[in-house]
Amino acid sequence: MSGTEVAAPMQSVGRALGVLEHVADAGTPLGLSELARACGLPISTAHRMVRSLVDSGYLHREPDRRYRLGPRLVALGGVALDPVGPEVSTWLRRLVAATGETANAATLCRDEVMFVAQAASPHQMRASTQLHHRTMVHCSGLGKALLSLLPDDEVVALAARTGLPRRTDRTLTEVDELLEALRGVRRLGHAVDDEEEEYGVRCVAVPVPGAPFPLAVSVSGPTVRLTPDSVPAIAAKLRQVVGAAA
Prior knowledge:
By secondary structure, the chain is of the alpha+beta class. The protein has helices spanning 3-26, 32-39, 43-55, 71-81, 85-99, 141-147, 152-162, 175-188, 231-242; strands at 30-31, 59-61, 66-69, 102-109, 112-119, 134-136, 191-194, 201-207, 216-222.
């Protein structure tokens, strides 16, 4: 088989995955023209791809001819999370009960953090985000916990691909700063987002040891409640819950 023959189906796979990711990122059903425009595809190509994804259950067509993610992805997601899924839900509930703040679990998806589970704080003022939301790795507690699992050369390569854009005046924007922070994460066993992604929000996160894929768990909340003095106790609780060494 020639290189050209291999490249064509691989390009189709990439386009199909791009369609699914755009639907997931949108958070609401999308019409065919919206999908084609977002993916940079001709309408005819997008139509063939969407029809195939609907036929195989990866997309679902609404009565108004818009598309949302289909039920087959639920099954696949369940299989992917099966080794740790039930445990993660238990961990997050325990963390909310112990801290009163929102608990999240996330993994690396390409070069980003993707949230895969959440248990919300009972407080009206709380830190929360949508499931499957993605954020950058360098400015989030979950991201730094996940990066701590990687060797430094892979972190440097990732930073070269994504850049380290400033989100607040506390964001780490230099590779050397990030590498130094990750050495601290590995030494202490936890990462902190100290208003580096969003003002008024602090997050403490730990990587999950022995997970079948990169996984981290966090507790996050408003800085008025989740103070610097509370970080060590929350980090210890996180490590206890996920079975990480101190």
